[in-house]
Amino acid sequence: MTFHLITLFPNSFDSYLGESILKRAIEDRKIKVKFYNPRDYSDGRVDDKPYSGGPGMVIEALPVIKAIEKAINKLPPKSYKLIWLSPSGKQFDNSYAKKITKKYEHIIIICGRYEGIDARVKKVFKMEEVSVGPFVLTGGELPAMIMVDVMSRQVEGVLGNFNSLEESRTASKDVYTRPEVFVYKDKKYKVPKILLSGNRAKIEEWKKSLHF
User: Fold this and answer.
1) Are residues 150 and 86 in the same domain?
2) Do 108 and 181 belong together in one domain?
3) How many CB atoms lie within 10 A of CB 164?
4) Residue 190 belongs to what domain range?
5) Side-chain-side CA neighbours of residue 180 (13 Å)
6) Do 152 and 121 sit in the same domain of this protein?
7) Whole-number Å distance between alpha carbons of 54 and 5
8) What's the CA gap between 67 and 58, in Å, rounded?
9) How many Å apart are CA 41 and CA 54, to the nearest integer?
10) Does residue 135 sit in the same domain as residue 182?
């Protein structure tokens, strides 16, 4: 699975991709993450005032188009999915992530900034508008990180034990570990008795009651 990220700020991904599970997945070549900065395909300027007027700047179409062209160059036409991040797009969730990662080997995510990207880019390429939630962010980098994380988990070997996928098993929103009892400010906090019972059927029922 290769993620191709079109972004003006590739360095903003460094800390998250450089830690824990995703770092190991990249080192083990379970996933790849490539960056394409529209600035590299411009004459030095990538934004301008919107024709509609108002505050903010709009990212020009041609630098983004050239960055996308670079990403899809030499890729078989049916091997990749183009995703345009938008607050008004299709809601991203685990089902969408599973479907996309099963069907495509390459995921290309276009990250907007400022007032957005010139909409004519969507007329040049066939792509799907996707949203990570009903809110507006400063840019598309955080949503892209969320999508890379969620979709990477669907790639076998990334989690080590594929059964670790909480969404594919009965997993409680509340979890506990040792010690069985701890004291904080003279109050005892205990693990629920059902988890100490050894009754697997009852434990599964308890998990289902708290399933997220």
Assistant:
1) yes
2) no
3) 13
4) 170-209
5) 5
6) yes
7) 28
8) 16
9) 27
10) no
Please indicate, yes or no, whether residues 184 and 93 belong to a single structural domain of this protein.
no
Same domain, 20 and 122: yes
Same domain flag for 101 and 177: no
Residues 160-196 have pLDDT tens digits of 655 555 555 556 778 888 888 888 899 988 988 988 9
3-class DSSP state of 203: helix
Nearest Cα neighbor of 85 from 142, 152, 2, 1 is 142
Question: Per the structure block, which two tokens stand in for 165?
Answer: 């996928």
Q: What's the whole-model pTM score?
A: 0.84
For residue range 19-50, list pLDDT tens digits in order. 989 999 999 999 999 999 999 999 888 999 99
Tokens 């590739």, residue?
10
pLDDT tens track for 51-101: 878 888 899 999 999 999 999 999 998 999 999 999 889 999 999 999 999
Domain count, the chain: 2
Asked whether residue 130 falls in the same domain as residue 194, the answer is no
